[in-house]
Structure formats: C-alpha cells, structure tokens
Amino acid sequence: MTLVTIPRPTTGDRAAATKMPTMKALVYQAVGKKALEDRPKPVIVAPTDAIVRIVKTTICGTDLHILKGDLPSCQPGRILGHEGVGIVDTVGPAVTVFKPGDHVLISCVSACGKCVYCRKQMYSHCTTGGWILGNTIDGTQAEFVRIPHADMSLYPIPAGADEEALVMLSDILPTSFECGVLNGKVEPGCTVAIVGSGPIGLAALLTAQFYSPAEIIMIDLDDNRLEVAKRFGATSTVNSTDGKAAEAVMKMTGKRGVDTAIEAVGIPATFELCEKIVTAGGHIANIGVHGKKVDLHLESLWDRNISITTRLVDTATIPMLFKTVSSHKIDPKKLITHRFKLDKILDAYETFGNAAKTKALKVIIEA
C-alpha cells in the first residue's frame, strides 16, 4: 500500500472553504449615496424567520426619503427595499405555514401576531416587528432577504397569479387604502381631493373608487400625472403650479371644500393645502412621509369639526386587496411604467427619482 501525504490546508484555503455565499444588494451608503454591492446571503437568525429569494421588487418614495436623510432610523450600510414577491429558500424550525419552494408575497410590515399592538391589528407598531425591512434590518432590493415572523409577514401566491401586479400589494395599495381611504372616511357620494398624483396618490384614487365617491379631485404639479389620473378615474384635476389650487378646489365645490382631503406627498405645502380645502366636518388623512415640520393652522381649523389622521400602514387589508386583484376588480399593474434587472437598479433609481422627466410611476426590478 502506498501512503500519500495530503498537504495541510493553509489559512487562505480554510477561509475560502468557509466563505459565506454572497448576493447582489442595493445599499444605502450615506445621504445621497447608494451602490449595488456584494453582501453575504442572509441566514436564519430566529426560529420564526424565513429566507426568501426575491423574484421581483420595486422602489418606494420612502426609499427616496431615506436617501435624502429624512428617516434617521435607517442608518448607512442598510440594504433598502420593503416590497416584493419571491420564493421561500429556507425556513426556521418554528415556521409552520410556509416551506421551501413556496411562492410568496412579502408584506412591507413584519408582525409577530401576539403583542398588544398586533392584537389590535396595528401591525406597524408590532413590538418586535413593524416597518423594519429596509429600515432597521436589511430589505428586499437584493437577491435574498430575511423575513422575521414569516408566518404572519408572508402571503401565499396561487399558481398563475400575476406577480408584477402583486408587488403593488406589498405596500403601495394597502398604504393608500388604509392611511388615505379608510382613515379619510371616504363614502358614497362624498367629495375627495387627493393632493399628489404620484404612485401613492394614484393608488388612493384606485381604491377610493371602492366606495363610489361623487367626485375625486386630483392635485399635482405634473400635467402628465394628472392625465394618468383622469384615465384612472379622477373626475377633475388641478395643476397647482400657480399656487392657486385651494382657490380652484373651493370654486369646484361651491366654496364648501371637500369631505376628504388626502395628503399623498409628504411636504409642508401639500399638508397645508389640505388644511385649506377641507370642509366643515371633513377629514384630513395624511399618507405622506414628512421629514420637515408642518404648521397646523388651528387659528383657522379650531371650530371646523374636522378630524386629522396619521398612520403607518398596517397591511391588515392585504387579504382583501388580494381578492380584489385576483378577481380583476382593480388592476394595480396600471401603475407600472418601467422594468429593470437588479444589475440595473441604479438606472431604476435614476428613472424613478426623475419622474417628471421619465414619466415613471412604479418600476419593477427583477432579481
């Protein structure tokens, strides 16, 4: 028998053998800076986790707020993104609803289902979850993502479903519906003004029509987006470039104002416009993410019997919205204007961030 001496592995060989798998991911580096980087593939941390291979994701206006430095909870080094559909890769031992290979919709909000807030369906305030994806933990603009509380934070996708349309159910549709339409008490025959005709405002326009309001007035600076709003069902539009949007809305409503004013931008001027156009007994429903202080004009509103609501989406309406999309009662795919591969995500951000020039609404990124 011949003895063969096998060389002992060097330190470099051992490091190579134990090197973690990597993936491509869009990383927030600093205010105004982002890059596509190689990052370690996520692993199971808690028994209730699932690792999901991303199939399709998108960019949210909130991601742009992060890049502007408006959300200090999201620190540099974070993988961005909180929306998407994918395929379950691995699951923790406590996950009972899902298994590897399942196609799933990812909720932008993670929920334990057990804490005091989850029991009130206020999943956005879950004590161990909430909006953490792409905020305080790594998000979905990557090849893989770790989903905490997987059984409560993922939804099964049936065979043959349009996954691009379902990406809109991760955030934009439930956000607009819950924070705008439901909080704004939209009801049959009422008059609604939506300030901001971007993706969130247009999603609010689509879902407000569940309740058959008599009028939906869309307000924006961009004529292209206002034209889109007309196609989506707006009864009237107002270009606010001249600073006279409030006067225009009051004229349209016989100086009465609107029953529901939905703020869908997140800047002081748009919220203050809502204050000017709401009628007595009306509702101001804020959706926008605000990074600067806004003046509340109680000197004008103290006697008006109005309500003002704020909210972070809880995604409690995803199951209902899932049914409306599946039955073709609503078509969120109309919001999609551009498509990119993950390796072109910087181009996707450029397109999405310059919507006035590119006419972008929602972009789909295929991982």
What does this 3D model show about the protein?
By secondary structure, the chain is α/β, with parallel strands linked by helices. The chain is built from 13 helices and 16 strands. The strands form 3 sheets. Strands 3, 5, 6, 7, 8, 15 and 16 form a 7-stranded mixed beta sheet that branches. Strand 13, helix 10 and strand 14 form a beta-alpha-beta unit. The longest helix is centred in the middle third of the chain and has 11 residues, at 172-182. It is globular, with a radius of gyration of 23 Å. The termini are far apart.
Keywords:
367 residues; six-stranded parallel beta sheet; 13 helices; 25% strand; globular
Brief digest:
Helix content is 27%, strand content 25%. It is α/β, with parallel strands linked by helices.
**Main structural class:** alpha/beta
Number of helices: 13
> In what range is the share of β-strand residues?
15-25%
Mean pLDDT: 94
N- to C-terminal separation?
A: 53 Å
- Based on Cα principal axes, name the global outline: globular
Rg over CA atoms: 23 Å
Low-confidence stretches: 1-17
The number of strands is 16
Helical content stands at: 25-40%
For the largest beta-sheet, the strand count, sense and barrel status come to: 7 strands, mixed
- Secondary-structure element order, N to C: HEEEHEEEEHEHHEHEHEHEHEHEHEHHE
Please outline the helices and strands.
Layout: H1 11-18, E1 22-30, E2 33-40, E3 50-58, H2 61-67, E4 78-79, E5 84-91, E6 103-106, E7 144-147, H3 150-153, E8 154-156, H4 163-167, H5 172-182, E9 191-195, H6 199-208, E10 215-220, H7 223-232, E11 236-239, H8 245-252, E12 258-263, H9 268-277, E13 278-286, H10 298-301, E14 307-309, H11 318-326, E15 336-341, H12 345-353, H13 355-358, E16 362-366
Parallel strand pairs: 9-10, 9-12, 10-11, 12-13, 13-14, 15-16
Antiparallel strand pairs: 1-2, 1-4, 3-5, 3-7, 3-16, 5-6, 6-8
